[in-house]
Request: fold
Amino acid sequence: MIESGAVEGEFKEYWERFAAHLKQLERSPLTVKNYHSDLKAFQQWLNTSEPALPGLTQVSWEELIQYQEFLLIQQKLNPRSVNRRMGTLKSFYTWLHQNERSTKFRFPIMPVPVKAVSVERPKSLTQVEQQSLLEAVQRDQNPRDLAIVKLLLYTGIRVGELCKLRWADIKIGSGKGVLLVRQLKSYLDKRIVLPPEVCAALLDLGYQTQAGSQAPVFVGQRGGMTSTGVRDVLKRYGLQVGLKNLNPRMLRVTCVTRLMAQGMDSADIAGLMGTSAGMMLHYYQRLSPIREAPP
Reply:
C-alpha cells in the first residue's frame, strides 16, 4: 500500500492545477466540486487496493477498466453514475497528458479509452427459436448463410470479426477445427475450437479448396461481406421465423448463455468473447432463463 502522506501531497498538487484549469473553462462551482469528489474517490481506490496499484499519475488503461468494474459491480452504481465518474477521469487524464508530457511520470495515452455502459439488457434466443432459425436457413440451402449463422451462434464472435475472416484463419482436420480471430477491440488475437456443426458448415462452404488462402470466407455481391450485409441476412431469416429484430449481438449473447448454462468459468467465457470477466458478468447476468439455452 502507498504511504498516505505522499499520496495526499500528489493529489493536492495536481488537483489544484486541474481545478484552475476547470475555472478557466468557466465550469460551475458544482461541477468543480463533483470533479474533486470523483478524483478523490479514484485516488482512495488506488491507495487501498490489494495488491497495490500505481499512483494517480501512473495508471494505465488496465487500472481504469478495473475501476469501472469496481463501480459497476461492487459499488452497484447505475450506468449513468459510472459513466459520469469515468468521464471525470477521462477529462483529468486528457488535461494531464496535454500539460505534463515532459515530466518523469507515465500517463495513459490520450484520450483514455473508456467503454460505455449500456442500460439495455441483451436478449438470448430460446432453444425453440434457435432450432427454428437453423431450420429456416437449412431450407434455403445457402451454404454461406448457414455458416454465418452457425459461426455466430456457436462461437459468439463479433460481426466485424466474422467479416474479416480469411480461409487461412481456419484449420479443420479429422472433424475438429480451430479458428483464429483477429481482435478488433484489443491487441490480442484469440483461438477458438470449432464445434462439429461449424466445421461441417465451413466444409460445405468450400474449406477443402480454399484452405490456406487469404480470400475472405464470406463473400457478397461486391467482394467480402460487410457488417451491414450480415445483418441483412440475419434480418431476412429472422422475419421468416418471427424474430423481427434478429441481429449478430443476439446470437453472441445466446452463445454466452449456453456456455454459462454448461458451467464454464466466467473468466474463460470472457477470454473467448474478448472482454473482461467483470463487464461480461454485468451484461449477461440477467439474460433470458438459462434453462432455455441449447444443450
Remarks:
- The chain has two domains: 4-99, 127-292.
- The first strand starts at residue 170 and ends at 173.
